[in-house]
Specification:
- By secondary structure, the protein is an all-alpha fold.
- Helix content is about 75%, strand content about 0%.
- The chain has a domain at about 25-125: Tetratricopeptide repeat domain (Serine Threonine Protein Phosphatase 5, Tetratricopeptide repeat).
- It is built from 24 helices and no strands.
- This is Tetratricopeptide TPR_1 repeat-containing protein.
Amino acid sequence: MKRLLFPLLTICFAVCITKVNAQQTASEYFEIGVNKSKAGDYIGASQAYSTAIAMNPENAASYYNRGLAKQQLKDHRGAILDFDRTIDLDPKNALAYLYRGKSKSEQDDHRSALQDYNRTIELNPEDAMAYLYRGMTRAKLLDYRRAIQDFTKVVELNPEDDKMYQAFFSRGACKSRLEDYQGSITDFTKAIDMNPKRSQSFASRGFSRLKINDFAGSIKDFDEAVKLNPEDSESYFNRGFAKTKIEDFRGAMNDYDKAIQLDPKNVRAFYGRGFCNSKLGNQKDATSDLTKAIEVDNMSIDSKVYYTGRITKKTLDELRSVVQEKSRINEFSEDRSEAYYSRGISKFKSGDGKGAILDLNKSIELNPTYAEAYFSRGLVRSSMGLQKEALQDCSNAIKLNPKYAEAYYVRGIIKHALGDENAGCYDLSRAGELGYSAAYNVIREYCN
């Protein structure tokens, strides 16, 4: 028995030594992976971790680190599998949940990512990065209010960490989405103080300032944005829009030109440039630009003729000489109704009443609540002798905007001309009350 026991003990000892050597070798490959990751060689790191895993498939850290390397290589599907295995082996590894959530978010699986961030926070309630990522995911899911709560938590956990500028920026973006523009400006300003080299922070603050009609401040912010990122078509457009608001039409034209140069499909820039061309008297160019604003990548163009008729130049001239155009540039919506409206105005100025009617019809069809479009169509119809139709357009404009002084004025003079003097004078009086002083000249002449 003793002679049999010795060989058996020898075999056991040899096996134990082999396992130790294998374990040490796996550790060495793990360290090679760590060093390669630090050097930015994520392919080499991934290969080293794979060797370590082959030698020791129960080591959670190897899967976790390989998942991080794959994440850097944008292999998010592979990273998720590694983080899955990490969690199987180490269910309380908060960072594995955090980075698995990040890879899921990169795959647009935001709801599943949210569950991973929730789990990370359960395991480590002080992890600021988890709140940051969860906030960003909630924002993508349009849950802006709870996203703001997460970003606020990030700031509370890291009040002096300049790296947390992202939390201020993201919180500002959410506030902007909720139309809290003043609050967003405060957050964007803090983000800029922490990181003054990020163009998007200036661009976002400029947009919020634009929304509260701080056009000068907005222009300054877009100046910085395009200085930091000269290829930012959107900031050129927004700066042009702000300049248009202060009637710097030539300055705006330069910005719209640049926006279009950088992005030939920027239909809002065509719309803005067309508006400026119209204001500067370049009606041919205005019509061309506004046509592009309507047609570029627009799959719903309807070429149906909605109206044709005769234009009376004398009536047109009279209406244009009395009613002062007060049109302002509006936000360019997805339906492009503003571009049809502005092109209609430009055609109206050029004496193309038929073309103006077609564009104004289309503008109203796309946006039935567009009071200015009804009023402008009323002017054109009245110039063509279609007074009853013009009355209806003015009435529709007033229903949509009860303080539309010019619409009361035009409806008043049409009613008076059609023999309804009392109603006409009442409308003229209302126009005067609302601030359209020209109405009082007509009242003195025809209502006494």
